[in-house]
Amino acid sequence: MQYDQLSTMISRQAEHYGDRTCLKYKSDETGTWIPVSWNRVDEIIKLEAQAMAALGIGVQENVGIFSQNMPEYIYTDFAAYANRAVNVPLYATSSPSQVKYIVENANIRVLFVGEQYQYDTAFDVLPHCATLEHIVIFDSKVKKSSTDEGISMSFDEFLMLGAKVGMDKVVEERSASSCLNDLACLMYTSGTTGTPKGVKLTHLCFQQALKNHDKLIDFKETDVSLNFLPFTHVFEKAWVYLCLHHGVTTCVNLRPQEVQEAMKEVRPTMMCSVPRFWEKIYAGVQEKIRTTTGVQKSLMEDAITVGMKYNSAIREHKRPPLWVRTKYAFYQRTIYKLLKKTIGLDNGRLFPIGGAKIPDLVHEFATAVGMPILIGYGLTESTASVTVTNPNDYKIGSVGKLMSDIELKFGENNEIYLRGNTITPGYYNNVEATTKAIDENGWFHTGDAGYMDENGNLFLTERLKELFKTSNGKYIAPQSIESNLVVDRFIDQIVIIADQRKYVSALIVPDFSQLEKWAQVNTALATLSREELVRHAEVKKLFYERIETLQQHFAHFEMVKKFTLLPDAFTMEKGEMTNTLKIKRAVVYQHYKDVIESMYQE
Predict the structure, then answer these.
(1) d(CA 75, CA 274)
(2) Crossing angle (nearest 10°) for helices 478-485 and 537-550
(3) What distances in angstroms separate CA 550 from CA 19, 21, 478, one per listed residue?
(4) Residues 157, 139: Cα–Cα separation, whole Å
(5) pLDDT on residue 556
(6) Confidence of residue 163 (pLDDT cuts 50, 70, 90)
(7) What's the angle, vertex CA 485, arms to CA 482 and CA 489, rounded to 5?
(8) How far is CA 417 from the centre of its chain?
(9) CB 119 within 8 A of CB 96
(10) Is 211's pLDDT higher than 90?
(11) Are the CB atoms for 188 and 102 separated by under 8 Å?
């Protein structure tokens, strides 16, 4: 396998694949998926790289990309690499203050924006950013401000700059001189606490990540990958690069809320995602079983049971009993097949999952019905994956085995330390944070605690920075409790409170689609609003009983003693969630300060 620099990877692939489809995206106008060939992608990238050079973007200069997922996003990533520049992704939902901070911290002169919201936000912060000079707009439908004179240009107008004489030679020289120690991108952490930090990832980080995954995953040129997470997320970015590296067709999903529709249209063989996606699928299947009766219900329940028995034997390297193999083969042709086709994953070969802990029950369910998921552990600072499971050899509850070239050891409080070529050299313009995270021997301190069993399977136990200590001196891992309770079909979001408190409590956002169905059965509750439902004694009793069932295996001090049901979800717009859908506990605690205090009043 040839490992080209990111600066030349697309050109090499275009020489090999030519007019074969590289990317697809869905047209807003026609609703059809538009193919883009490798040759065309290469052509656009070269022209854009030349335009960057013509605009004066220099070697290792930072270039901002503030956009939702679009083909132009990928073009700009690789155009920056070809020009030996550094790309700096900003989440499409970033607030003006977040954009201003990153633009100033990274000294960005040129900012590429996606649609109207990103343009409006960028234009509003422009007068307050000393470095920002140019805005390039991907979406041709964006309406410019009446005071926008000579500041912004469309993507097509920008590409025309690439036609200037001599720019092709400049880009060729820069691409050829690109080295593995060059910075490839700065990825700003989403910041559940404190100020975002710019994680420095080099070309070596990405190249080593490609090599590590090549030893684990069997890619085929006929594979089709559907984009799900934002390219600003290191997991999706690294996954897309891996797919391009293997000639996999990448389908760019422009509208995250339409991913379920996109799955049915594209029928991907691969797609990386976060646990919440699979939790929703699991909840949907459980609801389908619950509302089904008779023989069909029995068959569906048996299919999941048989699938779990079959995969349990495979994990233990045992041959499943004949009756299990026979039933499993039957369900593969019937119930499993129908389920996957209904979702749009009937062609699925591989589904990597990362970003958070997946509940064990959801993991077992997915493998039981023949959806081969790969559980991994990684961080932005490790260029995504550190460990990954093998579909045929894994332990439920683990996050897999260590990838090659990565060293791991355990420090104080069982904190996981990492070292290797995929690990960040530090944080941009932040010596203090770098020194705090990377010790004198080059070990990166992750802040995650865990242990490794005798077979090399890594298990995560808690996030040390989020380890709570009750006023009784007991330590609580909130994420572990949350992941165990969120599998309930009536729970959409949950935030645990316990630090310096007498006992564990929780803020719970119900899954109102389920709760309102349940309420319809009870005439007295059928007409109640969400605000009235969450306060009703019968609803509270329902949740109390379900939580009691789910936490039977918890230690007494880990059990949720009190909870409050909320009528509104935690959102990014209210600042309660990061762009990667992680809860900002400090913000939630502040927003619901009075509610929380009420749960601890005698």
Answers:
(1) 25
(2) 110
(3) 54, 48, 15
(4) 12
(5) 82
(6) confident
(7) 130
(8) 22
(9) no
(10) yes
(11) yes
The average pLDDT across 534-552 equals 92
- Say what angle helices 512-521 and 537-550 make with each other, to 10 degrees: 120
**Degrees, nearest 5: CA angle 456-462-463:** 115
Closest by CA position to 285, among listed 340, 350, 353: 340
Instruction: Choose the most confident range, by mean pLDDT, from 178-187, 210-219, 569-578.
Output: 178-187
The DSSP bridge partners found for residue 153 are: 136
Note the pLDDT tens digit of each residue in 100-156. 999 999 999 999 999 999 999 999 999 999 999 999 999 999 999 999 988 999 999
The confidence score (pLDDT) of residue 191 equals: 53
This prediction's pTM: 0.83
Q: What is the pLDDT of residues 254-272, one digit of tens each?
A: 988 889 999 999 999 999 9
Query: Helix or strand or coil: residue 342?
Result: helix
Contact 215, 431 (CB under 8 A): no
135 with 64: CB under 8 angstroms?
Answer: no
Do 137 and 122 form a contact (C-beta atoms < 8 A)? no
User: How many helices, marked H, and strands, marked E, lie in the chain?
Assistant: 22, 24
The burial class, CB within 10 Å (0-12 / 13-18 / 19+), for 431 is exposed
Q: Which residue in this structure is represented by tokens 């904190």?
A: 415
Average pLDDT on 79-98 reads 93
For residue 39, give every residue at least 6 positions away whose Cβ sits within 8 Å of its Cβ, in sequence order, or none.
14, 18, 19
Q: How many other CB atoms are there within 10 angstroms of residue 213's CB atom?
A: 22
